[in-house]
Amino acid sequence: MEITSLSYSKIASLLRCARAFEYNYILKTPVALKGRLLAGRCYHHTLAAAALKKQLFNELITPEEVGNEFSDRWTMETDVKLVYDELGEEKIEATIIDYGDDDPGKLKDSGIELAKLYIATVLPGLEIEYIEKRLETDIEGIPFVGYIDLLVNSKGAEVVIDHKLAKRKMPQEDADKDIQLSAYAMLMGKPITGQFHQALDTKDKEIHIVETRRGEEDIKWFKELARGCWQVIQNGVFPPNPLSWTCSADGCAYWLDCRKGWF
After folding, report:
1. Mean pLDDT per segment of 10 residues, for the chain of length 263 residues?
2. 3-state secondary structure of 1
3. Within a domain: 262
4. Helix, strand, or coil here: 186?
5. The CATH number of the domain where 194 resides is what?
6. Of 65, 76, 99, 201, which is the most buried if we count CB atoms within 10 A?
7. Domain span at residue 119?
8. Does the residue 261 lie in any domain?
9. Strand 33-34 vs strand 97-98: parallel, antiparallel, or unpaired?
10. CB-based contacts of 208: which residues, under 8 Å, 6+ apart?
11. How many distinct structural domains can be found in the chain?
C-alpha cells in the first residue's frame, strides 16, 4: 500500500515505532479496537454535534440529547467495529473490541458524563468559527493533511482547540513540545495559540485546559521533521523500536505479529 500523504498521526506513529507504522498504514493488519479509543471517538462525535447546534442556532443540546448522541454513536461503532485513520476514513476492520481493565458500561457512562460536563461548562463560552476543519498543504511536493477539532475566536484572535479524553492531566511541558499543534501551525501557515481541552476520566470528573503557542521556528522545525519522515517511508525500511513505551503485549496491538518474526 503506497503512502500518498502525511499527517500528524502518521508521523507520530512512525516516530513511536516504524514497524507498527508498517503494520498499520502499509500492511493494514486488522487489530482489536481499544475501548478507550472507541470512547474517545464517541466523545469527539458528541462534542462536534453540540458545537454545530451552537454555531448554527446559538443553542446547546440538552443533557438527554448528549446521551442519545453518544449512545447512538457507541452502538454504531460497536456494531461495525471499524478502525479509522486520522481523517475519519475507514481503514481496517477490527477483529474485536478490547476494553482492557475497563468495564464497557462504566466507560460509556463516563464518556457521556464528561461530554455533558464540557457542553455545560466550556462550550457556552466559545465563539466557534470552524468545526473539524480540514486543512491541506504541501511541503516541497509532499501532501500534508489534517483536521482541527475546533477553531474559535477569543478576544479577536484565533485559537485552535484539540479535544482529549484522558485519565491524567497533560503537564504544561508536554503541551509545549507536542508536535500536533506544530502540525496545525504548519497547516495554517502562521503562528498559532492552541489549547488541549482534556476531559479527565478520573474519580472527580473535570475539564482541564492547557494552552500553548507555536511560532515560525516551530513551523520550520516541523517541516524538517516531516521531510525526514517522508524519506524514511519512501525508503521502505521499517525496523521495530523495542525502546518505545508502547512495545509490549499490552501497549502495541501488533506486538505478537512483530515478535513472531524475531523467533
Report:
1. 88 96 90 89 96 96 97 88 55 74 96 98 97 94 95 95 96 96 97 98 96 98 97 94 91 86 58
2. coil
3. no
4. helix
5. 3.90.320
6. 201
7. 8-256
8. no
9. parallel
10. 169, 170, 197, 198, 200
11. 1
